[in-house]
Amino acid sequence: ISFTEALQHFQSAELSASRGKLRAPGRRGTLAALLRCLRGPPRLCPQLRGEQELALAMAQCALDDSERVHMRILQTIYRQLTRSRLGCPRYGAHWEELGFQGRTGSSPLPEEIPKIHSNLPWNLPVLSQLPQPLPLSFLNAGILVVSQNFPFCIMSVNITRIVIQALQEERLSRECNRRQQVIGVLNDLHAAAFLRLSRLWEQQHGTVADAGFFLKELELSTKKKPRQLLKSLEAYLSR
């Protein structure tokens, strides 16, 4: 399935149950509003609120085995990461080879990654775009997982959580307003964070035991310096 078709599916889907889980923004007092104006991030433009709500609703949408589009997305993730022309069974050890904790492609996070929690049951299709060309070590995710014990898909789900949280906290409003889009910014920031992770993992010879530390660093960079991350991605792609 293409990214555009997957996005169109979620745009046209009801998602009422997912939208019902969204947290309403808290009320701010006069002092808080003043401090925000002086030094806080800007608010998201009103015309982008609908796209923000869609992204947050998608983050609450669980993987459904009975939904054909969900299964096509899962198969596409497998084929893109393994460079395989063939699909794969719904259940099996091949999902563990891609870094899922279990054989379903939709499992909880491993105990080895401390203090990291995500209610995202699978990697969002709109946030599964990795930079092309990929870093050399990511060209074959299966080999990377086996040789370096890299939890590829679990880390991707965690990066999705970080990016979505940054959106909820309005850390990305400035960039979204500048580009007049939300999902495009989320896509690029997810790819930029994954690129940063790949460099950290290679430079520091990372293991699963280091995953929590790396994720904390990614969360700090994503929330405090999103523009810097995006510029790093732009520089990488330009080469």
From TrEMBL:
Entry-linked InterPro entries: ELMO_dom (IPR006816), ELMO_domain-containing (IPR050868)
Residue intervals of the ELMO domain: 69-226
Transmembrane segments: none
Protein name: ELMD3 protein
Organism annotation: Vidua macroura (Pin-tailed whydah)
